[in-house]
Specification:
The structure is a single chain. The protein has twelve helices and three strands. The protein folds into two domains: 144 residues, no CATH class; 54 residues, Alpha-Beta Plaits (2-Layer Sandwich), CATH 3.30.70. By secondary structure, it is mostly helical. The radius of gyration is 18 Å and the shape is globular. Helix 1 packs across helix 5 and helix 7 crosses helix 10. Bound molecules: iron/sulfur cluster (3 copies). One iron/sulfur cluster (SF4) binds next to helix 11.
């Protein structure tokens, strides 16, 4: 929470573009540990947690049921579509095919709309913006494939209680993996903290 407030202060001081640059600056750390900015510092993550805890309280067992497990995977690719939309818009802008007005109004407005709606959706679905819509998350998620330090599960210690799965905000089946290599992981370490038998380690 403290780091998320620091992230919020940076966001307020330097505007929405700051997220992009902070994510960029955190790349060296992400190459070691994955997208830690997402798990620990992103103010949008903090807002989703706050809205999500309200959703949990009000919806009870209906919380997190809006998206089925079957739909989860295909939907998670949508954030790459959003990232592609931004990159193509930037290239078209550089080539002067679209002008400043379209870039600053239409493209920016679409991206802000997507982000605001997706953060509000976290009332129904844990970290909805991170799971399905965030372009920065899409870019930094790729570091999961190359990060040096990975979460590893020791099957001889694991009692298959499933607690790590239940706390994962990104709906990763940690208890079914020996090494967590998943682009959805935001390096929040909730699974590691939850495991009472020390079966999960970052190595
Ligand atoms: S995925 Fe996006 S919204 Fe979620 S924590 Fe990362 S940067 Fe923030
Ligand atoms: S919380 Fe620990 S013991 Fe339980 S399933 Fe996960 S790794 Fe295994
Ligand atoms: S709970 Fe574990 S697997 Fe899930 S996002 Fe956090 S660090 Fe990754």
């Amino acid at each position: 929470m403290f780091l998320q407030l620091v992230g919020l202060a940076i966001f307020i001081d330097f505007g929405s573009q700051s997220t992009f640059y902070v994510v960029l600056l955190s790349v060296p750390v992400a190459l070691l540990f994955g997208p830690v900015y997402c798990g620990w510092m992103c103010p949008r993550g903090m807002f989703q947690n706050i809205i999500g805890s309200m959703g949990k309280r009000i919806l009870g067992k209906r919380y997190n049921t809006l998206v089925s497990k079957r739909m989860h995977k295909p939907l998670s690719y949508f954030r790459y579509v959003v990232l592609l939309f931004l990159l193509i818009s930037m290239v078209l802008h550089e080539l002067r095919i679209i002008d400043d007005l379209i870039m600053d109004s239409v493209v920016t407005d679409v991206l802000i709309f997507i982000m605001v709606v997706s953060i509000l959706l976290s009332f129904f679905v844990d970290r909805a913006a991170c799971r399905y819509f965030c372009k920065e998350g899409a870019a930094s998620s790729l570091t999961n494939l190359v990060k040096v330090r990975k979460i590893r599960r020791n099957p001889s210690l694991c009692c298959s209680c499933g607690l790590c799965d239940s706390v994962c905000p990104m709906w990763i089946d940690v208890s079914k993996k020996e090494v967590v290599i998943d682009t959805a992981c935001i390096s929040c370490m909730k699974c590691v903290q939850k495991c009472s038998v020390d079966a999960l380690r970052v190595e």
